[in-house]
Design brief:
It is a single chain. This protein has helices at 8-25, 42-51, 72-81, 92-103, 110-120, 124-136, 151-159, 163-170; strands spanning 30-34, 58-62, 140-143, 146-149. Strand 3 (140-143) and strand 4 (146-149) form a beta hairpin. The relative contact order is 0.10. It is mainly alpha-helical and 171 residues long.
Length: 171
């Protein structure tokens, strides 16, 4: 993949935006969070490059996917500007903890944790959507921080993909 080409106009705009952001920060510690930075346009990547050079007390937190999910040109720029911290998938125990938290219960049955773990691959976003989908399809009922599985609704839950997850996968 060819490197991203940016014109002088884009560089001038990036420098101006970075200068304004830095001036707005002043001496106050500030954080900027950019999710899915691998999808950033060339202007945003140039702004990040300028921000990396500013003396302002600025923390820029980026989430990104590595190649091949991220364009190689964006990955090259982002990896030069940051110190990557890989985030691994959750294990079964962590999946159960996240499920219990999301469903607001003390404990989730082992078989349900295994099912959600198998469907999600340990991806926290997928686990969260699957937990929400358990409620939407009424496959689980919660009362007094206890979870009750509704067997008659579990097949519907298994057969469907959560709407938000379906949209996310198609984006």
């Amino acid at each position: 993949e060819a490197p991203v080409q940016v014109g002088n106009h884009t560089l001038q705009r990036a420098r101006l935006i970075a200068t304004l952001l830095s001036a707005g920060v002043g001496a106050s510690p500030t954080a900027i969070v950019l999710d899915d930075a691998h999808r950033a346009d060339p202007l945003t990547l140039e702004v990040l490059r300028y921000l990396a050079q500013t003396p302002a007390p600025l923390l820029v937190f980026l989430t990104t996917r590595p190649p091949p999910d991220a364009p190689a040109s964006a990955w090259r720029i982002l990896s030069c500007l940051s110190s990557p911290i890989p985030v691994e998938a959750l294990d079964r125990r962590q999946t159960g903890v996240l499920l219990a938290h999301r469903l607001e219960v003390e404990q989730v049955p082992h078989r349900l944790v295994e099912t959600v773990f198998a469907r999600s691959g340990g991806n926290p976003l997928f686990i969260t959507h699957l937990a929400d989908h358990l409620r939407v399809t009424r496959a689980v009922d919660t009362q007094d921080r206890r979870l009750r599985i509704q067997a008659d609704c579990m097949e519907r839950w298994r057969a469907e993909l959560p709407v938000a997850l379906h949209a996310l996968l198609l984006s």
